[in-house]
Amino acid sequence: MSFPSQRIFRFAPSPNGRLHLGHAYSALYTDHWARALGGAFVLRIEDIDTVRCRPEFVEAVFKDLQWLGLEWPEPVRVQSAHFDDYRVAADALRSKGLLYPCFCTRAEIRAAADGRTDPDGAPIYPGTCRHLPGAERLEKLEAGVPVQWRLDVGRALDGKGELSIREAMPDPASEVVKRRAEPERWGDVVIVRKDTPTSYHLSVVVDDAIQGITHVTRGMDLYASTDIHVLLQVLLDLPSPVYTHHPLIVGEDAEKLSKSRGSESLAGLRALGIAPGEIRAQFTF
Fold this sequence. Notes:
ligase activity, Glu/Gln-tRNA-synth_Ib_cat-dom, ATP-binding, five-stranded parallel β-sheet, EC 6.1.1.-
């Protein structure tokens, strides 16, 4: 699979709360560089978390981005409408013997990890269920024990040699260089969650390929996850975009802005009489 000649950038928020200044920066950054490089800006709604993501937050995303003056082509790709695409990709990995069922609880994983963590700081999975006998796996599956499917990273990397990330830093106009990917530092990541037929890692690489995304611009908090994305692209024979990771917008406490921390929303700023031009004026790209 190859990319189209046009440069295509995407902004892909999760509608599990209201957008804040960090989202505004990322969206405006992406739009700026799409225009500067003669490309296109597309919007995607990443709502695989069907519990926390809600329709009113989707509508709020559209309203907030329109208020900022952004435009995008229709229709907007909404992940929850495309679960079948992710099932096909997961089945392809499963058919190659690269996925295995995991029945461990979070408490069990935390205890077995013995303090070891992945790049996000979460307990790293020790591979417990990778060693389950086939009969025990089948028994648990038939009994309906909650299951998630993990990527056997060691097997996935076997024979692949060194994997590289195509990166343009500090901005998408910079020279594209290759950086070594290190998927092994993540351990056996979840590819199919217990509550949905995909995961963030799987859905974004599938969507980027389907939408022909050539440039991914996103925050530094996702820098390390590119390791897994590049590995999945190789395993699924998908093209790999050029990646640029921009700085995060932080609050007065030097912590990144976050919905879960109650950071001031764009809707809240709008209600205070703040004009979109004032938001845009805060940022330089």
